[in-house]
Write a structure and sequence with these properties.
Number of helices: 11
Distance between the termini: 33 Å
Order of helices and strands: EHEHEHEHEHEHHEHHHEH
Bound molecules: uridine-5'-diphosphate, magnesium ion
Radius of gyration: 25 Å
Length: 324
C-alpha cells in the first residue's frame, strides 16, 4: 500500500480543526479502501494561542493517522508548509487548508490523476472569487497581472496552495530552503508537469481568515521581490528617460533665450520638478531597500521554523534536523 501525507497548516483553528477531521476521516477511509493508499494527516500548529494543539494531541491519541508538529511561535503559513514537507514521509504529499476551503473530496481524484496520467503534481485554482470583498479581488487581480509581467516564473491567478505532489517534486521544493518563502512561485519554479483543476470559491467553514489587507500586501511584496528583479532596473530606466528629457529641455531653453531674451520666471515649475525627481529617487532607493532587506534576512540564515513539540511518530523520523 502506498502512503500519502496531507500537510495541514493550522493557526488558531480550534473551531475548524474538528470539522476538518470529521470530513477528512471519510475521505481517508474511502481512499484506503478503494485506492489502496494510506493517508496520514500532518497537522502543523503554527504557534496557536488557543486550543489547537490540544485538539491535535487528542486526535493523535484517537487516530494514529493524525500526526502533528508544533512551532514555538507563529512563523506563518509558508513556514508551516515547509516544515510539513520536511517531515512528510509519504510518497505522495498534499498541502491543504484546514478551513475546508480546499475541498477534501477532490483528493481522491487528484490521486487518481497522478496514478493514471503522466503528471508529477496536481494543483488547484479557484475559477471564481465569489464571496470575497470587491476591493480584495481587485487588488489580487492587479497583483497577478503585475507580477506576471515582470517575472519569468508564471504565478497562476487564483492558484491555491492545495496540491498533491509526488516525492521527487517534494524533494525539489525542499532544496529551496530560502527564508523569504512564496510557495506559489516556488512550486512553479521547480518545474515538473502539473495538472490544474478548477473549483468554485467556497466560504470558510469555521473561524476567521488570518489574512488582513496589510498581510496580503507584504505577501505580494514577497512574491515580487522573490521572483523578479525587474523593479531594480526601474532606477536606470527612469534615469535614462530623465536624462533625455533634460537634454531636450536644455535645447528648448537655450533656443528660447536666444530668441526672446531671458525673463526670470518658472519658479513654480522648478519646485514641481524638484518634487517629482526627488520622489522618483526616493522610490528607487526604497525598491533597492526592499531587496536589500530580503538579502539581509537571507544572509542571516535563521531557521525557517522552530519546533516546540511533535507527535512521537514524527519525532522518530530520520530526516536531518532542519538545515538552513
Ligand atoms: N495559517 C497558518 N499560519 C498563519 C496564517 C494562516 O498556518 O500565520 C493557516 C490557517 O490556519 C489555514 C490556512 O493557513 O489553514 C489558510 O488561512 P486562511 O484561511 O486564514 O487564509 P485564506 O483562506 O483566507 O486565504
Ligand atoms: Mg481560508
Amino acid at each position: 500500500m502506498s502512503k500519502m501525507t496531507v500537510i495541514v497548516p493550522c493557526f488558531n483553528e480550534e473551531e475548524a480543526l474538528p470539522v476538518y477531521y470529521h470530513e477528512m476521516q471519510k475521505i481517508m477511509d474511502q481512499m484506503e479502501e478503494l485506492q489502496r493508499v494510506r493517508v496520514e494527516l500532518l497537522l502543523v500548529d503554527d504557534g496557536s494561542s488557543d486550543h489547537t494543539l490540544y485538539i491535535m494531541k487528542k486526535l493523535n491519541q484517537k487516530d494514529d493517522r493524525c500526526q502533528y508538529l508544533s512551532f514555538s511561535r507563529n512563523f506563518g503559513k509558508e513556514a508551516a508548509i515547509y516544515a510539513g514537507l520536511h517531515y512528510a514521509s509519504g510518497e505522495y504529499v498534499a498541502v491543504m487548508d484546514v478551513d475546508l476551503q480546499d475541498p477534501p473530496k477532490l483528493l481522491p481524484k487528484m490521486y487518481q490523476i497522478l496514478q493514471e496520467e503522466d503528471y508529477d503534481s496536481v494543483a488547484t485554482k479557484r475559477c471564481t472569487r465569489a464571496g470575497e470583498p470587491k476591493i480584495r479581488s481587485f487588488l489580487s487581480e492587479s497583483f497577478y497581472k503585475f507580477i506576471n509581467k515582470i517575472s519569468k516564473t508564471e504565478i497562476v491567478n487564483g492558484a491555491r496552495d492545495y496540491r498533491l505532489m509526488k516525492r521527487k517534486m517534494v524533494d525539489a521544493v525542499l532544496e529551496m530552503s530560502e527564508y523569504n518563502r512564496f510557495s506559489k512561485g516556488i512550486f512553479e519554479w521547480v518545474g515538473f508537469r502539473t495538472k490544474w483543476l478548477e473549483f468554485e470559491n467556497i466560504e470558510r467553514s469555521k473561524g476567521e481568515t488570518k489574512w488582513s489587507l496589510g498581510k496580503l500586501f507584504s505577501y505580494s511584496l514577497e512574491g515580487i521581490t522573490g521572483f523578479s528583479v525587474a523593479p531594480l532596473s526601474l532606477a536606470s530606466i527612469v534615469g535614462v528617460l530623465f536624462c533625455l528629457l533634460s537634454f531636450i529641455m536644455i535645447l528648448v531653453i537655450v533656443g528660447q533665450t536666444l530668441a526672446f531674451g531671458n525673463p526670470v520666471a518658472g519658479w513654480p515649475s522648478l519646485v514641481c520638478i524638484i518634487f517629482l525627481v526627488s520622489g522618483i529617487q526616493l522610490l528607487c532607493t526604497g525598491i533597492v531597500g526592499q531587496y536589500l532587506s530580503k538579502t539581509y534576512l537571507e544572509t542571516k540564515r535563521r531557521p525557517i521554523f522552530i519546533l516546540k513539540d511533535s507527535s512521537q511518530e514524527v519525532k522518530g523520523r530520520t530526516h536531518e534536523a532542519v538545515e538552513i
